[in-house]
Amino acid sequence: MRSRRNNQEGFTLIELMVVILIIGLLATIVVRNLRGVTDRAKRTKAEADISELKQALDSYYLDNGNYPTSEQGLQALVSAPTSGPIPSDYETGGYIERVPLDPWGHPYVYESDGNSYTLKSYGADGQPGGTGKNADIDGSQQ
Questions:
Q1: What is the pLDDT of residues 21-58, one digit of tens each?
Q2: Domain of 29?
Q3: Residue 39 phi, psi (nearest 5)
Q4: CA dihedral 7, 9, 15, 20 (to 10 degrees)
Q5: Is 115 exposed, middle or buried (0-12, 13-18, 19+ CB in 10 A)?
Q6: Residue 8 burial (C-beta neighbours within 10 Å; 0-12, 13-18, 19+)
Q7: Is 75 a domain residue?
Q8: Contact 103, 122 (CB under 8 A)
Q9: Are 100 and 41 a contacting pair, CB within 8 Å?
Q10: Which of 42, 98, 114, 137 has the fewest CB atoms found within 10 Å of its own CB?
């Protein structure tokens, strides 16, 4: 009969558990760091959207002598408004392709009397005020 080998190769259960523990700790550190990165990326995206909307609003103002009113909203940048102050020299094709939602899926807040406007995102919670990822991102023009 064959004799059993006393010196078998392989890993022990303890060694495998230590490796799994180390991988778990590293994964926790990476996930924790990535969470902050996505929040900052969403905030940067909202700031870029607001900048694009401000440029479109300024172009609208230069062409028509006023900003779209609150009732006309940002949709006036996509297609010519049919109510309120009718634009006199509306850009063919509009000023933007579509009105974006903020990175958290909420519409941008736009209020205007035609002479100045308020444009902002309320952040992740969609509510005015807040701090951190819930803080307002303001792009108002006075």
A1: 999 999 999 888 887 788 889 999 999 999 999 999 99
A2: 15-138
A3: -65, -45
A4: -170
A5: exposed
A6: exposed
A7: yes
A8: no
A9: no
A10: 98
Cα distances from 100 to residues 45, 49, 54, 68, 93, in angstroms, run 11, 7, 13, 17, 17
Q: How much is the CA Rg of the chain, to the nearest whole Å? A: 27
Q: What pLDDT digit, counting tens, does each position of 2-28 carry?
A: 555 566 678 889 999 999 999 999 999
- The CATH number linked to 67 is 3.30.700.10
Q: What's the predicted TM-score (pTM) here? A: 0.73
Tokens 């990165």 label which residue?
A: 37
Q: Is residue 3 part of a domain?
A: no
Of 52, 142, 65, 138, which is closest to residue 95 (Cα–Cα)?
A: 52
pLDDT at 142: 54
- The domain tally of the chain equals 1
Inter-residue contact 90 to 78 (CB < 8 Å):
no
Residue 1 falls inside a structural domain: no
